[in-house]
Amino acid sequence: MPQPLLADWTPEDFMTVEEGVFVAKHRLAETGLFTDDVLAEVIDSHPPEHLGINTMGTDPNVFDWMEGERNGLSGQEIIQLVRRGQIWINCRKMLDHHPKHAQALHQVYDEIESGKPGFQAQDRTANLLISSPNAWVPYHVDMPMNMLWHIRGTKRVWVYPHFDNRFASVETLGKVCAGEWSEDVPYDSSFDKYALVFDAQPGQLITWPQLTPHRVCNLEGLNVSVSTEHKNARARRRINVHTANHLMRHRFGKECREIGVDGPVAYAKEALARAFRLADKFVGKEKEQFVYPMRFVLDREAPNGYRLKEEKEENYVAPHQEFETAGV
C-alpha cells in the first residue's frame, strides 16, 4: 500500500473539490520526482511536440506571451537558464510519457475519488511547469477542471469570482468553449480587488471550480508545479452549454445566457453542441486551434536566457484581440 500523497485532508476538503476555491497539502515532493536531475531527464526525454518553451514581457498587465525553440540545449542547460532567466517550460501530457510521474498523479486523483463519494476524474491530463523566479502567466480560464499542485519555489495566484459575468462574460466563455478564442481572456487590473490571492508554498494544492478566471506571478526561486486537469459528465456538459450558447448567438442571432448545467435545457444544449460539432467535422469545418508563433530561441549568452528571432511578428496580438478584430 503506497503512502498517501494527500496530507491531512478533512472531509470538508474532499467535498470542496470542484465546488469552491481551497488550499490543501500534498506530498508529491517526497516522491523524489521533481529534483533538478529528474526535471532535466524529463525535458530530454519529452516529445518535442509536447514541450512548450515560453517567455513573457515584464508587465503582467500587457499580453506578450511568446513561444520559443530549444536551440539544441540539454535539459540541464535549460534548467539553469530557467533558474536565472525569464522562461516558462511546459511539459504537456505527462501521464502519457513518464510512467513514474503518472503513477503518482493518478494516485492523488484516486485518493480524491476515495474521499469524495460520487467524484469522478475522467480524461485526466497533467502538465509539468518549470518556471523562472520572475515568470508569470496571463489572466485565463481552463476549460477542464484544473488543480495546481505546487512543489518548489513560491508563486502568487489570483483567483477571481467564478460564474460571474463581470470577470469572464457569457460571450467570452462561449467563444473559449467553442474554440473561437484561446483560454487567454480579456483582463483589467480593476478585477484584482475582487480576487482571492494565495502565495503558494511548496507542498500546497490550490484548486477552483471549472472555468474560473485566474493568473499567476512567480515570487522567488525556481518554480516547479504540476497542473492537472480532468473532466466528467458534468464538466463536459458545462463546456457544451457554453458552446451551444455561442452557436445560437453566432449562427442564429438568438441570445442565450443561461449557463446552468442541470435540467432538461442543459441536456438539450449539450445535444445541440455535439450535433453542431459532428456536423462541422463531417463537412470539414472544424475550428483550428490558436498556435503561438515561434518568436525566440533559447540562448546561453542572452541576459534572460533567450533571444528574439530576426524575423519580426509585426501583427502579433493576443488571441482574444485577434478574434475581436475579426468581428467574431
What would you note in describing this structure?
- The protein has about 325 residues and is of the alpha+beta class.
- About 30% of the residues lie in helices and about 25% in strands.
- It folds into two domains: about 5-230 and about 290-310, Cupin (Jelly Rolls, Sandwich); about 235-280, no CATH class.
- About 35% of the residues are buried.
SSE layout:
Blueprint: E1 6-7, H1 11-16, E2 22-26, H2 36-45, E3 51-55, E4 66-69, H3 75-84, E5 88-91, H4 94-97, H5 99-115, E6 122-131, E7 136-140, E8 145-159, H6 170-177, E9 196-200, E10 204-207, E11 214-231, H7 233-252, H8 264-282, E12 294-298, E13 306-308, H9 319-325
Parallel strand pairs: 4-12
Antiparallel strand pairs: 1-2, 2-10, 3-4, 3-5, 5-6, 6-11, 7-11, 8-9, 8-10, 8-11, 12-13
